[in-house]
Amino acid sequence: MNLRSLVLTVLATAIFSAAEAVSIGHDKVQPFPQPEPVTISEKAAVKHKPSLQIVDGCHPYPAVNAAGETSAGLQGSGKPDGKCKGSGLGSQVHNWVNAIVWLDNPSLEKPKILAVSTSSLKGGYDIIKNAPRRCGRYCDPEFAEYINSSSPMLSYVSYYPEGVSLHTLRMTTTRGIGELQDLIMWEQLSEPARLALSKTDFGEKAKVPFIDVNLNASLEAARPFL
Questions:
Q1: Is the residue at 220 inside a domain?
Q2: What does pTM read for this prediction?
Q3: Among 28, 36, 147, 162, which is most exposed with the fewest C-beta within 10 angstroms?
Q4: pLDDT band with cut points at 50, 70 and 90 for residue 92
Q5: What are phi and psi of 29, to 5 degrees?
Q6: Which positions carry the signal peptide feature in this UniProt record (predicted)?
C-alpha cells in the first residue's frame, strides 16, 4: 500500500505565488468530489477521515482543480477570516495545515487507529497516541474521547501574537460541531493536478506535505513510534 493513502490532508492553502501552474481566484477552483471507495485501503481512509471544526480563521478551499489550475490564495492583508468562510464550489487559503492518521493495518476490515499527528505552530507535528492516558496535576483525555465513531475530531484554531496571524490544527474532544471534508487520494487526482501540486511554488512556509519530494520527510516528522 502506498503510504500516501495514510495522509489525510484536511486543509488546502493560501498565500503563495504560482511558478509553473496557472493560478486562479481562490473561490474559483472547482474541487474534486470524493469518489466511491473501492479498494480496502480507500475504504479504510474514508472511514477514518477526520472531521474538522473551524474555531476561527478561513474555511477549507481547494488548492487545485482537474485542469491543474492552482488557487492564487488570499491577499496578505485584511481580516484573517474575512471573505473566506468557505467556497461556494466546495472545499483554506493560508497554509498546508494537515493531519496524518496512523492505522495498524489498512487492509483489515476494521483497522485500529494507533495515533493521530497534526501539524503544529512550531513546525513539525503534535502527536496523540492511542495509549493509556498520562496524569500529572491533570489527566489527559482518553484517546477514545478524540474519536467520533471512526473519525478523529480536529479543530482549526488561529492565534494572533503581536498582531501576527498564526494557525494550527489540533485534536478536540468537542462533538457535534466538526464537518467531514471530501477525501481525495493522490492517485485519484488528475495527472495535471498532481503535476501542478508538485511544481507550483506555494512559498517557503507552505510546502505541500504529500508530494513525492516531501512525503517521506512529513511521515518521519509525524511518526508516533520509533
A1: no
A2: 0.81
A3: 162
A4: very low
A5: -85, 120
A6: 1-21
